[in-house]
Amino acid sequence: MPENSTAYEPTERTVPSRNRRRASYDRELVHSILDEAYVCHLGFVRDGAPVVLPTLYGRIGERLYVHGSTGSRPARMADPGLAVCLTVTHVDGLVLARSAFHHSINYRSVVVHGTAHQVTDPDELREALDALVDQVVPGRSYDSRPANAKELAATAVLRLDLDEVSAKVRAGGPNDEPEDLDLPHWTGVVPVATRYGAPVPADGLDPAVAVPDYLTVL
Amino acid sequence: MPENSTAYEPTERTVPSRNRRRASYDRELVHSILDEAYVCHLGFVRDGAPVVLPTLYGRIGERLYVHGSTGSRPARMADPGLAVCLTVTHVDGLVLARSAFHHSINYRSVVVHGTAHQVTDPDELREALDALVDQVVPGRSYDSRPANAKELAATAVLRLDLDEVSAKVRAGGPNDEPEDLDLPHWTGVVPVATRYGAPVPADGLDPAVAVPDYLTVL
């Protein structure tokens, strides 16, 4: 698919078996959900069984980069290519209905299917490492010592192209049954968000080093 | 393993290939990590490829229950049993080192391997549904209409026993190299936590219905 298309092409496995109205293939929506997070859950198959591990990722355009040491299992399995499913989820609210059955969560998620490949080009590896750092704290890669040759050699990065992708979003209030509307239970949504606390300097940091601006906007 | 053992028995696949010092099999630690969350990432294999979906879960003792409609893929595949990997992750902090290489995340995660089975016993199904609701908001199952026969029939719940389980924890400050300690970059940890906002009543809720106490302690 051309990268300037506004939507990803649905495939058999990116069309959900339930709640299809919540699915979206909109490229901007997918990017926005991915860019608000930095931890994904990466699934792969090992000895026929599923494995799901939390890991850091970064996005550059239509490519995701996933971090791992060269000793990690996904990295060792990624030559010549590892079938993966990469999932990112934000919880936005707790949905309390009058009926237990209609309790739910407001969320935004992205699921990416594809084959991950180990990055071997040195320039791409450096760009990917910057993207991984900047995904956590935008701008931070410019304010830290870049990886040296030894560190680059000890780092494995997998690339996963954004091709077979879907988003899923649930928003709004509870969907109670008409016959339940007079039940006496409180009903509504409890908003959920991520809170970033005041930065805590490391032991030994020179007190003259100020907290950088890019941390004050988190 | 006896359920009163203080630790889960490590297995070949619950011993991580890297950062082994971060791994733990302590039962109390595993329970505490599981009990602080309500969304897991459930991995399974479909047509030979991994699938990772976010979903709600609840814990009763050494059993996890995962929710799904009877039409959902994992539920349909869970008879007679579905190999799954269920992962729960809390992000506790952003670890900013002076070197890009030593950037990290403080986190607590639990990974459960096993075979999920569909719950067919009606009493167990009711208990599991209460556990799913109470995992999100402790005490809420007592303050909502229980599922009726039609809803129970439309709900599939999978059970996964806590048997092959590990936790992984990263805490503390950055681990910079000695030769980097005089670099001019700010270094430390940005704490990350979940923030619950003020409950938002659903449209049409009788204003006389007060926000329940169990929501004020979130």
TrEMBL record, chains A, B:
InterPro entries: Pyridox_Oxase-rel (IPR024747), Split_barrel_FMN-bd (IPR012349). SUPFAM superfamilies: FMN-binding split barrel (SSF50475). PANTHER family: 5-NITROIMIDAZOLE ANTIBIOTICS RESISTANCE PROTEIN, NIMA-FAMILY-RELATED PROTEIN-RELATED, FLAVIN-NUCLEOTIDE-BINDING PROTEIN. Residues 1-22 are annotated as: Disordered. Pfam families: Pyridox_ox_2. It comes from the Bacteria. This is Pyridoxamine 5'-phosphate oxidase family protein.
